[in-house]
Design a protein that fits this description.
This protein is α/β, with parallel strands linked by helices. Helix content is 28%, strand content 19%. A four-stranded parallel β-sheet has the order 2-1-3-4, covered by helices on one side.
């Protein structure tokens, strides 16, 4: 069979589902490639991770006997069969991302945040689904996609696997600062990381003490390697957003503003995002009140 793969979200980040499907079909003797409008395919997979806010499926396919669509971007649907889910990904599908492994050690999250689909899709319990060897085979870097690794009862053993790999590990979805302890911080200190990511999503929950404790115990001394996602435009005021940004900077973390449903965000929130996320500006203009676009907005309110 000739198989085509369509990454509906684009190619700025490898699609793990397509890589596993490619490995499965190649193991069966099929030919697999990224879909092209030329030629004919027995089967085409269209995979979409993000919702309409981030990507749209405008790709029309007329050269295939069968088309299968899947992924959270299309809504609830069946998971990959186990025989596909536990395939080592076919990284050759994305040669532009060399020497990097992608995968999940755990699935699920107990937090059930309203802006996140993980708890509904994967369950409100974080549980182990793989060992590192399932998707890592000596690559220099590991992109971990787990939603809440520290909530898994086996997380210390899994962190040890990451540490023993000696690969650079990116906890790309962030770690739950509320679940850090002296023991697991000590284990995280053994992992090679270019940066560690956390999140402060709820402005009504004060996480200051957790972040302060982490700074006291972590081996990562550079504030630019201690990064925190700050969710805005989701039930928070501008004052609450700015408080979290300023507090994190004062504690020695590098905040990164995430805007929920950006088209509906007020101008002040979009200016805050530009100020914080452009690190040259953020480290030069220390006070948001001195950021020129924001000053113009306050002086000439709409």
């Amino acid at each position: 069979m000739k198989i085509g793969c369509v990454d509906v979200d684009g190619h700025n980040w490898p699609n793990l589902c397509l890589m596993k499907l490619s490995a499965y079909h190649k193991a069966r003797g099929d030919t697999v490639e990224l879909w092209r409008p030329e030629g004919w395919y027995d089967l085409v997979y269209k995979s979409r991770v993000f919702t309409n806010t981030y990507s749209k499926d405008n790709i029309y396919i007329a050269n295939a006997d069968q088309i299968i669509r899947g992924g959270t971007g299309y809504g609830p649907g069946p998971d990959l069969p186990d025989v596909v889910e536990h395939q080592r990904p076919d990284y050759s599908l994305y040669p532009q991302f060399p020497d990097t492994a992608y995968g999940f050690l755990t699935r699920g999250c107990p937090r059930a945040c309203g802006f996140c689909i993980v708890s509904d899709k994967e369950g409100r319990r974080s549980h182990q689904v793989a060992d590192l060897s399932e998707f890592w085979d000596g690559q220099r870097e590991i992109k971990l996609l787990d939603a809440n690794l520290l909530a898994c009862p086996d997380h210390e053993r899994l962190i040890l696997q990451l540490a023993e790999s000696r690969a650079y590990v990116d906890f790309s979805q962030g770690l739950d600062i509320r679940l850090t302890t002296p023991d697991n911080i000590a284990l995280l200190n053994r992992v090679r990381t270019k940066a560690v990511h956390f999140a402060w999503d709820d402005p009504n929950v004060d996480l200051t003490g957790y972040f302060r404790r982490f700074v006291e115990r972590t081996a990562i001394k550079s504030d630019r390697r201690r990064r925190v996602y700050v969710l805005t435009n989701y039930g928070s005021t501008h004052e609450q957003d700015l408080y979290r940004v300023d507090t994190l900077r004062g504690l020695g973390f590098d905040p990164y503003v995430m805007v929920y449903d950006r088209p509906s965000a007020p101008p002040i929130t979009r200016h805050l995002q530009r100020w914080v996320n452009n690190k040259r500006i953020f480290h030069t203009v220390r006070d948001f009140a001195d950021y020129a676009p924001a000053k113009r907005l306050w002086e000439n309110p709409i």
